[in-house]
Specification:
This protein is an alpha+beta fold and 315 residues long. Strands 5, 6, 7, 8, 9, 10, 13, 14, 15, 16 and 17 form an eleven-stranded mixed β-sheet that branches. It has a four-stranded antiparallel β-sheet with strand order 1-4-2-3. It contains six helices and 17 strands.
Length: 315
C-alpha cells in the first residue's frame, strides 16, 4: 500500500499546504489529487464536514483554494452515514428548544472530524424541511458520543436573535444513571472536587480534575446514590452534575463507569431526567429518557418504546 493510499484511508487528519500549481483549484479537485480518491469521494469528504481551510470547516466542495493555505482533511468523514431527520425521537418541542433522545454511539454535535451523522445536523435538516430559514441549533449540555439520553438543543432561524445563553445559564434539575465498577462506599457518596477546562485546538477542549496551582477552577458537585448492586458493579443515579463531572468524580472516588476508556464500547452513562422552567414562556418542562438494558434494576423489563438503534451492553 502506498503512502498516498494510506493517507486516503487514515482515521486521523491529513495536513498539507496548497502549492502554486494548486492555486485556484476547487477543494474537491485538490482533495482528489492529494488523497488519490475520486471526485465523488472527495466531494463527500467535504459535504460531511471533514475538510478545513485554515481553521474554517468547509462544506462546499466547489470552494476554491489559494496558494499557501493550510488544509486539514479527515478522509474517513465520507464513510459516515447521515441520520434520517425523521428518525429523531423528540421528547419535548417548543419554539425555542428541543429535547432529543440520543442513542449510544451517536455524537450529539459536530466533532472535529465531521458534522455528518450527528443529532445536531439531523435536527437542522428537520427544521429546514419544516420551512425554518437557515436554522441554527445549540447543544446546551454536552454528552459523550458513547453515552445516551437527553440532549437539549436551542433552536432558532436566521432572523431570530440568539438566546442560547439564557438556556445555558438556567438552573436545571439533571439526573444521570450510571453503572460503576468497583466497591461503592455506602448508599450515598458526594464528590465536590473542582474541575479545570482545557482549551485545545478549537475542538471544544477537554476537562480534568483541578490541580493545585490551576488559576481557573470550576466548582462541581456529583451526588451518587446506589440503586442496586450487580455483582462486581453498582447501578447508581447521580444528581446535580454534568456528564464530564460524573466521569471525573467517579475516578476520584476510585470507581470507573462501565465502558470508560474502552474504544467503541458503550459507556454506561445515561442522561436520564431533565427539568427546568422555560426561560421564554415560563412553562415547566420535565422529561425522562427510556432506560437501556444496562440501566434496568433487577426484574425490570426493557420498555418496548425504547428508541431504535440503541445499543445495550446486556439487554
Amino acid at each position: 500500500m502506498t503512502s498516498q493510499t494510506s493517507a486516503a484511508h487514515a482515521s486521523g487528519p491529513v495536513r498539507f499546504r496548497v502549492v502554486s500549481v494548486e492555486d485556484g483549484m476547487m477543494l474537491r479537485q485538490l482533495l482528489g489529487k492529494r488523497l488519490k480518491v475520486s471526485p465523488t469521494v472527495a466531494a463527500e469528504i467535504v459535504r460531511a464536514g471533514g475538510a478545513y481551510v485554515g481553521i474554517v470547516r468547509m462544506c462546499v466542495p466547489t470552494v476554491r483554494v489559494t496558494e499557501g493555505e493550510r488544509v486539514t482533511v479527515y478522509p474517513r468523514a465520507a464513510e459516515i452515514t447521515a441520520i434520517d431527520p425523521g428518525a429523531l425521537r423528540l421528547l419535548h418541542r417548543d419554539e425555542q428548544c428541543v429535547i432529543v433522545e440520543k442513542p449510544h454511539g451517536v455524537p450529539a454535535a459536530a466533532t472535529r472530524a465531521a458534522n455528518r451523522g450527528t443529532l445536531a445536523q439531523a435536527l437542522v435538516q428537520r427544521l429546514e424541511a419544516e420551512g425554518v430559514l437557515r436554522p441554527y441549533v445549540g447543544l446546551v449540555h454536552n454528552l459523550p458520543a458513547a453515552a445516551a439520553g437527553l440532549a437539549l438543543f436551542t433552536i432558532r432561524g436566521q432572523a431570530t436573535e440568539s438566546f442560547y445563553r439564557s438556556f445555558a445559564e438556567l438552573p436545571m434539575h439533571r439526573r444521570h444513571r450510571v453503572r460503576l465498577r468497583g466497591g461503592f462506599p455506602g448508599e450515598r457518596v458526594v464528590c465536590e472536587a473542582p474541575l479545570c477546562h482545557l482549551l485545545t485546538g478549537g475542538t471544544g477542549g477537554s476537562w480534568r480534575l483541578a490541580r493545585a496551582g490551576d488559576r481557573e477552577q470550576l466548582a462541581a458537585r456529583s451526588e451518587f446514590s446506589k440503586l442496586a448492586e450487580l455483582g462486581e458493579e453498582t447501578l447508581a443515579v447521580v444528581d446535580g452534575s454534568s456528564a464530564e463531572a460524573i466521569r471525573l468524580h467517579a475516578r476520584a472516588l476510585g470507581l470507573a463507569i462501565v465502558g470508560e476508556d474502552e474504544p467503541s464500547a458503550t459507556l454506561c452513562l445515561l442522561a436520564e431526567a431533565l427539568a427546568f422552567t422555560q426561560p421564554r414562556s415560563g412553562a415547566a418542562v420535565a422529561v425522562s429518557a427510556s432506560l437501556p438494558g444496562w440501566a434496568l434494576l433487577p426484574g425490570e423489563v426493557l420498555a418496548s418504546g425504547a428508541p431504535p438503534g440503541l445499543t445495550d451492553v446486556d439487554a
